[in-house]
Please model this.
Amino acid sequence: MIIRAATEADFQGCTAVWLSTQTDLGAGPIADQPLNAHELHTGRLLVADVDGEVVGFGATLTRSGVAYLADLFVTPPYQNRGIGRRLMEVLLADHSGALFTFASPDPRSQGLYEQFGMRAVEPYHYLDAQVDTLVPWETDVELLSADFADIVAIDDALTGRNRGDDLDYAKTLGATWYLASRHGVCVGAVAAVAPVWWNPWHPQSARIGPVMAHDAADIAAIMSSAISATAALDVDVVSTFVPSSLSALPVLLRAGFEVVDTDLLMASDDTLIDRHRYLPTVDTP
Model:
């Protein structure tokens, strides 16, 4: 087994590894996952190769000295052989800054990440709602067409990182960026994406996120406006990704969202994400 830098020829193998680890996805072929191309061209993507077969892969996106572990997957027949650890070692060999990831509930992966200096911060929930039963709550925030430079500036202020590549990547996925305004004053920004790439067997789905708010109290209002905006996208399911401590979570659940999965934010520094003013996505963290 060798660990090597990935090429575009490995995307199909990476997708096959990812699919082999999923237990709740529908049947049928899918295209290569676009996140792998983003990782290859703006980050670091490695594969574990056994006799020419990709049996695992890992990727980091490093922005302003902070590394995000975006992917780490090993196909089940090759798990528990130290491949994940070896991928981590090579990925992080020259990284000395902060590090974070969204870990699956698997205690093996969480234990591995702890060995690389990350600690549990808080659970993040994937929320889904049927659009035809979802009721946006009252809001005084309107969404306006956004200049991309303004989105980058708001993001930089909230994350402290230069993430223009990631925000631009969201645009390539079909994200529509909006400025959130109250009585002519910008209170934040939000993206709506349709279709959602990691839900390939449900093409009529949309995602709300990232969500950015200058004041945490405005998150719920911005999200309500974004829900209304998704109605124009001809979708039947809308999704978002929120921390368990988000003050707006009870509002979202009452409106019709349901928790469909949970990951664990793990980080070497628990201040890396302002969890009450910035709602990430797994590919724009």
About this structure: The mean pLDDT is 91. The first strand starts at residue 2 and ends at 5.
